[in-house]
Amino acid sequence: MALPRIKICCISSVEEARMAVAAGASALGFVGPMPSGPGVIRNELIPEIIRTVPPPVATFLLSSETTHEGLASHQKLAHANTLQIVDHVPLHLFPLLREALPHVKLVQVVHVLNEASVEEALAYAAHADALLLDSGNPHLKVKVLGGTGTTHDWTLSRKIVEQAAIPVFLAGGLTPGNARQALDQVNPYGLDVCSGVRTNGRLDPRELEAFFLAAGY
Fold this sequence. Notes:
By secondary structure, the chain is α/β, with parallel strands linked by helices. The chain has 8 helices and 10 strands. It starts with a strand and ends with a helix.
């Protein structure tokens, strides 16, 4: 049985990137400007860290841009190999993004709120390379686009995993204490974790080790 991919998000320094890679991360997440939430770093710092990340570790730029011009410009600034779109965007943007970013993988975040989120996810699954299911809410006055530290209804996430024809990552409130349960209940392609492996905001090697052990590494 294949091990789940583990994405360590909110990477803020070369040191954190190296720590996550050494622990076994398949992917690293870099948070660009957001309306709320943790982990944001300066756009200029992101490519500096990404240059130190060895292949085949994937580098995800988390972008809250909602136009294809904004998303493409942000991606070209960061030089990540994967664009994680954290807000709702219209489906017609995907062909435009593929034309502008032909060698970049596109990952669409779906904030799992209710049954309508399942339909939303499956619509995106026809266009994106992967989905990432999170616990935010883009409909609030101040959008919450991730980094909540809370779980959502995993029964809905399981429905999406079962029906989507592309890889699905699970995020939102994951910790060493619930990583195994998340894998067993949702059966995602991978797990995405930020605050669950940090102590006082800093990446914690002991929490990292515990998370990977819980995930079967």
